[in-house]
Design brief:
The structure is a homodimer of 476-residue chains. The first copy, chain A, has 476 residues and is an alpha/beta fold. The first copy, chain A, has helices at 3-15, 28-35, 39-51, 92-97, 117-130, 145-159, 173-185, 200-208, 225-235, 256-268, 324-337, 343-353, 356-382, 408-417, 447-468; strands spanning 55-58, 62-65, 77-79, 85-87, 103-104, 168-172, 191-196, 212-217, 239-242, 272-276, 301-306, 317-321, 397-401, 420-421, 423-424, 437-441.
């Protein structure tokens, strides 16, 4: 054991309030016994604590907690009312989602009315006829083999890529995959590239793991690859968490021309690309470019393909594709995290996914989403507010820039009082910028709700603008 | 940022091989820019690295990695063939389970033939009639409200305990609950009490979080409460992970008389009791004592009630009961981990669980398991080997002591070659002891398989005993 581990341990317990200001620390001898280490190791830790002015020494008495140090890090630690201190885990997005509202534009999920419900229910029944003992069985931690086989065939057909069923792990949604990957790849202070803006839950997960987030600007033209190379050279990031296709929240697409180059950069600078591709099949006009994963020959891309969004949200199925070397630690992490995604949901997904009906559903869904996007754009355009956005060619969201003087947080506060919610831009930005941007999801509300909601939002934004009286910002 | 965080970061990267022996570290100036900290902070970290002989200094040149330090911690880091280093995550139990064998005594799961399969399938169909849009909906991270309501009513009826639906979180199996709790409660070097022996996956999870495991002996008479008080006083453990009812792997029951006292101790020493109670309803003769949770008034017990084992393993439903103060961080952790257990499995569970048929199933299941236990004991008794065990009054396992000179690992090696597996005792022990103990699960194999398997095991044990020729250990 190293003395710096003991140093950390003491600091943690001071922060938790186990030892308060002027409290005496355990003697070197007793702590050495407790931790089963040499006294010298504890002595070194105490010396370092003293050096850093965390503790002070009383002659012939011992070490005492400096009042400045005690309780300083209350932000990192959560004191619960009954005195149990638990680590604070942040989930800003889910906090917003927990608020029930009438006009729900914050959740990027598909309106259940757009799913072929009767067919789906019938399908489930068939599945239970095929596997009468389904409820009694576990999945392996890696995931159902039949499902992994099917996914290999599917990607072979659709992308001409050779995969074997050992190169897939099934997780409960893409978010679990991000969490597991960050647990096996990231240690505190590791640099991780993320797009700016990005998926807010990914920010929370990566930060929770202690990562230093290095933002990569994402524009309608893609990334600046030279800037990325500089960042990779300078920061040696362990991972680049990316969502290059119908990006959340912006809807942007990374051009095909940049994809191969980026994989080469990843290889050169030994940076794992975590490619989150949840919206791949939700295009409006033409199919998006091939995933980066298809250009990867050396195992630097981990591909997350969630089917949760549009196949069947209730099932929460995500496939993680990676080369064998990454799969092994991933399976071990999944084993410990929950020992495997429920078999029931995997089997239902498998049979639904390979059905004819599924393709028909997708086609209809794309049309329905496109109509909702159009309605939202129509209402936004009709408003006498100078907000701006780029028309998304797929996905579920419009990334809207409010006139500069309107704060998204203030607008959200007002909106919630009128039972309307959206995602404020700053929670999608590791730098906490994008204060005047909002993400509006058009996937959950129907056309009428979208029209009413957008009119409501327009009115609230206008009131805010008037209140702050910056007429020059309003549309002429 | 603290210099010791920078110290850790450098050590991690030396261990990963990012910097090898005699490689030059970044200059103080460049690292200070990189990490956005004061140069003095980096200087302090480098001084400490030098002091600990991790790096050496070349005059007017910089800091270089000491050859002794480089690559020393290969055990903590996993180098994958393509050069990506991923943290090694250990899951010993799941490694054993991954081996397909004919006689499977290592997995403590219920034989799917003992579940009312046809009824279950019919049930699922009914559920989809009730909720035709089920597949299109997500659960909240906390879990389905209807299910949480039902569980409150159930515990009110069965245990006369008042709960509200805000005091429950639904997780995907008990293992996820253990993982989430250790993530919010445990920091490196924290002391955690665990029974000896205990559930091997819990050892892996807690160790993965950096906990120091302090074993508590569990005997057929229960714990030694005075010893526990001494341990709590001395080590100030953050948590006691326990499985007091039909304990895994031993089958022991903590007597009712000790339960209330233990809760009082937990309160006095501010130690969270994590009570894993997966086998509560699987008793053979009489109901086990009330859970410790029922004695808790002040929020020191977190109660994990998995229904995965016997209601429907395919669903993987576990309910975590805790006071509000612990629930909040738990929901946040669950949000980040997977954003909620699939709604489909929660709704199916809910309707099955409250059915008449469920109670009938449980009754039959108890009888069937008891018969299997009897058959296993019969065969073990008939063998001319001096192995010993305590008859379990519930649960799924027999905890068997081999004659001392037979190593469970060697027996397992032999057994796997004859397509038979079990859990060797040492992986259930944080101290890596119990080298001559094995856990035999009687829940998955049928009576014929149990008879054949036990005869096979007897033969292999006898051969091992003969090979090492310690006739005195054999039964007279």
């Amino acid at each position: 054991m190293r003395s710096k581990q003991i140093y950390d341990y003491i600091i943690t317990n001071i922060e938790r309030g186990e030892w308060g200001a002027h409290d005496k620390l355990p003697s070197i001898r007793s702590l050495a016994v407790e931790l089963n280490v040499n006294r010298l190791t504890v002595f070194k830790a105490y010396q370092l604590l003293k050096q850093h002015e965390k503790v002070y020494v009383k002659e012939k008495s011992g070490y005492y907690v400096c009042p400045d140090c005690a309780g300083t890090a209350a932000d990192a630690v959560y004191h619960t009312p009954n005195g149990v201190s638990a680590l604070q885990v942040t989930s800003q997005l889910s906090d917003i989602h927990r608020i029930a509202v009438e006009y729900q534009f914050s959740q990027a999920i598909i309106d259940p009315n757009l799913l072929p419900n009767l067919f789906l229910s019938d399908y489930v029944k068939k599945v239970f006829d095929i596997y009468p003992k389904l409820m009694g069985n576990y999945s392996t931690p890696q995931g159902d083999e039949e499902l992994r086989d099917l996914l290999c065939q599917y990607f072979k057909r659709s992308n001409r890529v050779e995969l074997n069923n050992g190169e897939i792990v099934i997780t409960t949604g893409a978010q679990q995959a991000i969490d597991l990957l960050s647990r096996i790849l990231i240690r505190p202070l590791d640099a991780v590239l993320v797009e700016r803006p990005t998926y807010s839950a990914a920010i929370d997960i990566l930060r929770g793991q202690g990562a230093r987030l290095i933002p990569v600007e994402f524009t309608p033209e893609g990334y600046d690859l030279e800037a990325i190379e500089r960042l990779m050279k300078q920061h040696r990031p362990r991972m680049f968490y990316m969502n290059p296709t119908f990006h959340n929240p912006t809807g942007y697409i990374l051009p095909a021309s940049q994809r191969k180059q980026l994989v080469e950069l990843a290889e050169r600078y030994r940076c794992v690309l975590v490619e989150d591709d949840a919206f791949h099949d939700m295009y409006f006009h033409e199919r998006p470019p091939q995933p980066l994963f298809m250009y990867d020959t050396d195992g630097w891309v981990v591909y997350l393909r969630s089917f949760s969004k549009y196949v069947a949200p209730g099932l929460r199925i995500c496939a993680v594709f990676a080369r064998k070397s990454m799969i092994e630690p991933l399976i071990a992490a999944k084993s410990l995290a929950d020992n495997g995604t429920p078999l029931v949901t995997q089997k239902i997904f498998l049979h639904y996914f390979q059905s004819e009906r599924m393709q028909q559903h997708l086609k209809k869904l794309r049309t329905a989403l496109q109509i909702r996007r159009d309605v939202m754009e129509e209402e936004l355009s009709a408003a006498s507010i100078d907000w701006q956005w780029t028309t998304p060619q797929g996905g579920l969201n419009i990334w809207l820039r409010l006139p500069n003087h309107i704060s998204a947080s203030m607008l959200l506060q007002e909106s919630l009082q009128h039972s309307l919610s959206f995602v404020p831009g700053h929670i999608c930005d590791p730098n906490n910028g994008y204060q005047s941007w909002v993400r509006l999801s058009y996937s959950l509300m129907n056309e009428i709700q979208i029209r009413e909601g957008m009119r409501q939002l327009t009115q609230l934004a206008q009131q805010l603008a008037t209140r702050f009286d910056f007429p020059s910002y309003q549309r002429k």
